[in-house]
Amino acid sequence: MHIATKITLGIGSLVTIVSIFGLVIGGSMLDSMDPNDESWAGELMMKDQASLDYEDNFEWTSIYNVFVEEGYEVDVEVLNGGDNAYFESCDIWGDCDYYDNEGYQEGFQYIGEIIVDQSGTYEINFIVNGDGEEPTVMIREESITGVFGILGGFFGCCLGIIILSIGLIFALVLKDKKTLPPNKVMIVGREESITPLIDIQKDDNNDIPQEIEDDSNPDWWK
Predict the structure, then answer these.
(1) Confidence (pTM)
(2) How many CB atoms lie within 10 A of CB 112?
(3) Which one, of 146, 165, 164, lies nearest residue 15 by Cα?
(4) Domain ranges, ordered by start, for the chain
(5) Which of 29, 38, 71, 135 has the most Cβ atoms closer than 10 angstroms to its Cβ?
C-alpha cells in the first residue's frame, strides 16, 4: 500500500472515531436533562431583589437566561460589556413564552438572555420600572457545550468520511514502485610490472649501495 494511502486512511479513521465520541458525549449531556425540571432553563446563578448591580464571571460557552417575578418589568443592561457581552430582550425574537412549558420557573417570567462573546467579569444592572417596587430577578446559566459537542461531532464525521473516501481513491490509483535488485558489476584489473632502468648493488666492503651505470668510459674524469 502506498504511503500516501496509509496516511490518508489513518487520518480519516482518527477524525471519524473522535467525532463519533463527540456526538455520543454531546448527546448524553442533552439526554440527561429533564424538560420538566427547573434546570432545563439552566443552573441557578443569581436570585435577588431589584434594583441592583450584579457582578460575576461569565463564560462564552454558556447562555444566561434572565427571569423576573411575574407582574413586574425591569430593564437589564451589561454595564461594562461593550460588544463582548450584552442583554438581548425576548421581544426581539418573540420568544418570551419559550419557558412557559419546558423549564418553567414558577412565579417568574422569561424576559431575555445575556449573550457573552468573550469570557470575563461583567456587571449587570437591573432597574425596576415602577416606584417602590422590589421584584425578584433571577439569572440561570445554560451551558451549550453539549450542543457544541454534537455540532463538532457531526462536522467531524463528515470530514472524516471525506478523508476516508480520498484514501480509498488513493488505494485504487496509487501503486507502490517495485524495487529492482542492483546489477552486479565485476571489475577485473591487471598487474603491470616495471623493470627499473637502474640496478642497485650492494658493495661487499662497506655495504653501501652503488649505482652501476652503463658507460663505455667509466674513467672519463681522469
Answers:
(1) 0.57
(2) 20
(3) 164
(4) 37-143
(5) 135
